[in-house]
Design goal:
Keywords: Signal
Largest sheet: 2 strands, antiparallel
Signal peptide: 1-24
Mean pLDDT: 77
Shape: globular
Strand content: 15-25%
Oligomer: single chain
Number of domains: 2
Protein name: PAR1 protein
Organism: Handroanthus impetiginosus
Length: 182
């Protein structure tokens, strides 16, 4: 009897990180700054970290609800494993497509550890890339061939459709599906 109870406790604590965000309602304004970025409120809207100067003039941070809806991840706080695998930082204030300009970031985002296992982060950057006219799966495919060339072409094109010797990173078609596997 005691051994089965011990097994259940071990099982619970082993699985609890997988349940993160599902046991309680996620309210962006209630999240500490170290959990805000890459979290999705129970309402389905993304949380964003914002900074402001307090009365003494010191920089402080607060978590706010954005207007961006992502219903399939409602009530979700990204895991530390995905934060590390995808090369992102929970202290990001606002999220920008500028991250695609660094080969290290694109390499981390496109790595199997991130791209296959972290759908929340990939979904966010899939949509950011689409806003720049870039189809993330094609960007990742080209990144495997030559990350520096892809970065240079992103810089020179302003983020629009990219052509490389090995193919092209086409603008996202209006009917394009979301990130592969989601």
């Amino acid at each position: 009897m005691a051994s089965s109870m011990k097994f259940l406790l071990i099982l619970f604590f082993t699985c609890s990180p997988l349940l993160q965000g599902t046991l309680a309602e996620v309210v962006c304004e209630n999240l500490p700054e170290n959990l805000c970025s890459f979290a999705v409120a129970s309402s389905g809207k993304r949380c964003v970290l914002e900074n402001y100067k307090n009365e003494e003039g010191n920089l402080e941070y607060t978590c706010k609800l954005s207007e961006v809806m992502v219903e399939r991840f409602a009530g979700y706080i990204e895991t530390d494993q995905c934060i590390a695998a995808c090369g992102v930082d929970r202290r990001f204030v606002g999220i920008s497509s500028d991250a695609f300009l660094t080969p290290e970031f694109t390499s981390s985002l496109c790595s199997p550890a991130c791209y296959r296992n972290c759908p929340n982060v990939v979904d966010l950057y899939f949509n950011l890339a689409a806003g720049e006219g870039v189809f993330l799966p094609a960007l990742c495919e080209n990144q495997k061939r030559s990350s520096h060339r892809v970065t240079l072409e992103l810089l020179s094109s302003g983020g629009g459709a990219l052509a490389t010797a090995g193919g092209s990173i086409a603008p996202t078609p209006a009917s394009a599906p979301g990130p592969a596997g989601f």
